[in-house]
Amino acid sequence: MANQPHHLIIDPWSQGLSVMRDVLSRWSRLDITQVGSAIAIVGTIPTAVRLLGRVWREAYHWVRLCFLAEVTIPGGDPLNRSVVKWLLDKRPRHHRSFTGRTQVQHARSTPDLGAALKKTRHQAQYCPHWHSRWFFQQGDFFIVNRSADSFSAALSDPSYDGIGGEELTISCLGWSAAPVMRFIETCRAYTDRQAQFFVIIYARDRYGLAWKPKTRTPIRHLDTVHLDKDVKDSLISDVRNYLDPKTQKRYQSRSMPYRRGYLFYGPPGTGKSSLSVAIAGEFGLDIYEVKIPTIATDADLEHMFQEIPPRCVVLLEDIDAVGVDCAASDKSSSSQDGKEPISNCTMSGLLNVLDGVSSQEGRIVIMTTNRPEQLNSALVRPGRVDMKVLLGNISQASSLEMFLRMFSPELGIAQPLDSEELLALAAQFARQIPEDTFTPSFLQGFFQLHLDCPREAAASIGPRVQKALAHGIEGDFEMVNRNKNG
Ligand SMILES: Nc1ncnc2c1ncn2[C@@H]1O[C@H](COP(=O)(O)OP(=O)(O)OP(=O)(O)O)[C@@H](O)[C@H]1O
């Protein structure tokens, strides 16, 4: 470099200066009137742009009025999400504008081992940000506009993932909105196909104003929930029979309310929630989760139930809390400590939404409890609860099934076994599990430590069981407040 002649080195500064010098010398040759008119022309550009903008808006307003048919979908509606998802997936574009937000992921859903050691992992999530899109679909021309007003409101909601929160207006050329409706149906079918492997669990948003998808859990096959086979079979055939369209007609022709309620009861960790998710998955239903203690008033509860669609599972978890909370709120309302009483839903409010005039027909209500003896008899009377299902501690037969499921050759374990050895190990394992003593979640916790070693699992369950029995069924933890006499 040092030996290179100077004229071969391209210096950007000297290049730029010579261009400027050139421009200035040309300008200096212009006469002042030419310069004045050039400045005047440049000065009119912003006004012209504003004018053109107004003309365009005015023209678009008239085109919209005379030649476009449109459908508006409010932000947060599932249809809105379907349309935006379809657009992003099927009409991808190069985007230069994004909304970014922090996405909190559970550690178990990340392949990153380092992050898995932490409870949660924060990731940046970017979603294309657009206001207007146009495209052709099956020979029709569509314009999709997103409302900018609702955009910032949706962004301020931390549970919002950037899709479907803003009002959408979908327009097509013509006098009929039928093509738009057909297009919306295409989008809905597309997202339904994507969601068929998941159960969507809806919960109230943080303001308690609307239902929002809380999680999408992969469908859990009914075989993966272990309980008495006869009980499971009769439960599933009851649900299947209820959802049969003929049943609805039969109910209606006899003036019977078309509703079905189930109570899943049993100790914690016996699969009440898992069974609810498996049922929803089996019948292609979404779950609407209602947490009674978080509901402020009976009116809120009623409002919530009015917005639950007819064909779904309504999951009322820990329903025994209703009685406790009502009692607590009754006490607090008469308390002398001067504090504002905690407003809560009452038993009559709950009964009203379960089978009153406001209750939707066609849904399945599943109530779960660990303490069935505390339930108000009115709540579990036939008509509100049509079938009670005990999910108890695990039997030896179910332990055997669970072992076979955990070490199934299809799962590709590190120590593959032939089917005979697998069956023998499963039988050896099950023999060491005392009948109806441990919860399925206890066994699941044990399997988690031996997922790749079925032989080790079968050999070490004995000592594990003895230890758990010696320390109390809860496992290695001594229960400090346990009243052994009571
Ligand atoms: N019967 C079962 N069959 C298979 N797995 C089970 C069963 N019971 C519990 N589990 C496992 O144990 C864990 C806890 O189960 P789940 O939350 O369904 O229990 P639960 O009865 O609803 O508990 P809680 O009353 O504390 O809410 C889940 O990971 C589930 O896979």
UniProtKB/TrEMBL annotation:
Compartment(s): Mitochondrion inner membrane
Q: What residues does the AAA+ ATPase domain cover?
A: 258-395
Q: Which UniProt keywords apply?
A: ATP-binding, Hydrolase, Membrane, Mitochondrion, Mitochondrion inner membrane, Nucleotide-binding, Transmembrane, Transmembrane helix
Its domain of life reads Eukaryota
Q: Which Pfam families does UniProt cross-reference here?
A: AAA, AAA_lid_BCS1, BCS1_N
Q: How does it sit in the membrane?
A: Single-pass membrane protein
Question: Signal peptide location in the record?
Answer: none
For molecular function, the Gene Ontology terms on record are: ATP binding; ATP hydrolysis activity
**Ranges of residues in domain BCS1 N-terminal:** 40-225
Q: Which GO terms describe its cellular component?
A: mitochondrial inner membrane
Which InterPro entries does the UniProt entry name for this protein?
AAA+_ATPase, AAA_lid_BCS1, ATPase_AAA_core, BCS1_N, Mitochondrial_chaperone_BCS1, P-loop_NTPase
- Report which reactions are catalysed by this protein: ATP + H2O = ADP + phosphate + H(+)
Q: Which SUPFAM superfamilies match?
A: P-loop containing nucleoside triphosphate hydrolases (SSF52540)
Family stated for the protein in its record: Belongs to the AAA ATPase family. BCS1 subfamily.
By what name is this protein known?
Answer: P-loop containing nucleoside triphosphate hydrolase protein
Lineage summary: Eukaryota, Fungi, Dikarya, Ascomycota, Pezizomycotina
